[in-house]
Amino acid sequence: MPKPTDLSQSQVSVSNVSMRRNESSSSLQSHSSNVGTGSGSHVLAKLFRKGSDRSSPNVPSRTASMNNTPSVSLTPSSSNLTPRVSNSSNASTAGSTDSSSLRHLSLKRFLKPIHRSAKAKEQQEHLHQVIQHKLNKLKIGNHHHHHHHNKEQPKPEPVLPPQPDGREERMAVRKLVAQYGEIPDAAVEKNVLGEGAGGSVLIVRRPSDGQVFAIKKFRPQTSRESDYDYRKKVINEYNLLVDLEHENIVRVYELLNEHTLYVMVMEYCKYDFFTIVMGGVMSKDEIYCYFKQMAEGVIYIHSQGIAHRDLKLDNCVVSETGILKLIDFGSAARFRMPDSDPDQDIIPVRGIVGSDPYLAPECLSMGSYDPRPADVWSLAIMFCCMVLRRFPWKIPKTTDSSYRAFVGEPGEDGKASSGSGRLLKLLPAASRPLIGGMLTVAADKRTTMDQLQRDSFFYGIDWCHGSIKGDHTHHLITEKDLEKIEAERKKQSEMAKKMG
Questions:
Q1: What's the pLDDT score for residue 8?
Q2: Contacts of 247 (CB under 8 A, 6+ apart)
Q3: Active site (annotated) includes residue 310
Q4: Catalytic residue, candidates 285, 310, 328, 370
Q5: What are phi and psi of 495, to 5 degrees?
Q6: What is the pLDDT of residues 354-364, one digit of tens each?
Q7: Of 310, 312, 392, 400, nearest in space to 352 by CA
Q8: Where is the composition biased (Polar residues) (predicted)?
Q9: Is residue 46 annotated as involved in ligand binding?
């Protein structure tokens, strides 16, 4: 299989946008529009300053299949990455409103910074427990003993299996995946694709044929987990994925284990979908194609009795032929047993998992709920993010002014907001009825996946699947390409200021 195409030496066609980033998020502001998405941009009134990822272990890995023939719009020039604005009706549509009338709820990754913070907090709590336990033991053994002899003794700290150090772990991982390829002896971090609360993802290349695999290395067991619970979680994720066979779902090959170390071998692809969206390179037809592909993936897993529960831009990757794949099933749940009657009662789910802007309202307000409508809601939010390149709201609660405007509830002044129309008219007209139905607050009245398939807009989408390619181009960019585009945009902005 050929090596992944390096796009860092290419020119990408992009719309006129400006970007700003920091180390914890990726933010983008739009300054142009080639789509008739209407006015009313003031629907998004609050700046999205900081988000919360509530997912069970998430691995934002770039895991998808490598395909043979790239379908990319590129000019083989490495010296000029000047963004170009197309006059075509299919030109980049992500920017839809003038930034002067709108304060953006900027798109943001929910990756390393949040997970690092959670890990640090967990380590701090664990250390505090150990210290407190030792202090209690000292107190029991001295003159204070007679005050406590009738009280319950403190529970001992759970004993974790011995964890290998960094060098031992790298050697163990290399040994486990030897049949798929070799991880270089240099620092493993150089080969890390993604890292989150669920673990990290490495890449290996098989020398015999050059095929590349993604290797998910699960995080170690924590002090809060029993050995049984930890193993159950790892094996559950593998069992949910191993029998799935669909081009829009990441393919899993094998789960490997040695003592406390677990790794999962998966398909690989280098194109991170969040990066593509942030690049502002997608045309209207390209957005529609990706939306249908992610929906087809959800239709399939629902038919298998599985809900993803953490659908977001970060959990999608794209192959070299423009095929989108859903990844990271660490929060997935089975709502119906395999081969059972589709009409039987579903198994409700509990808990809040996922990232706040993508969550369905019932995830926050109900103790248990049907996970299928929640996936439908998240799909609609992803569509909005692709078109608008920003979140509609920070969290689906009426304490959020943008969401309160969407549901039309009165604010502190007692005046009711105008409702969902203010958001929907920012979207392409043909998509509004479907997306509006998918964003129905009442889960039992929300558009279902069966209804989505019969929708005229959805049915008429020209999409890439199998060997059939749609009548549009897929613009594929990597992080390196995005950095070059950002640098060029910054340079152009500085020149414009000098000339102005």
A1: 37
A2: 65, 323, 325, 465, 466
A3: yes
A4: 310
A5: -65, -40
A6: 899 999 999 99
A7: 310
A8: 54-85
A9: no
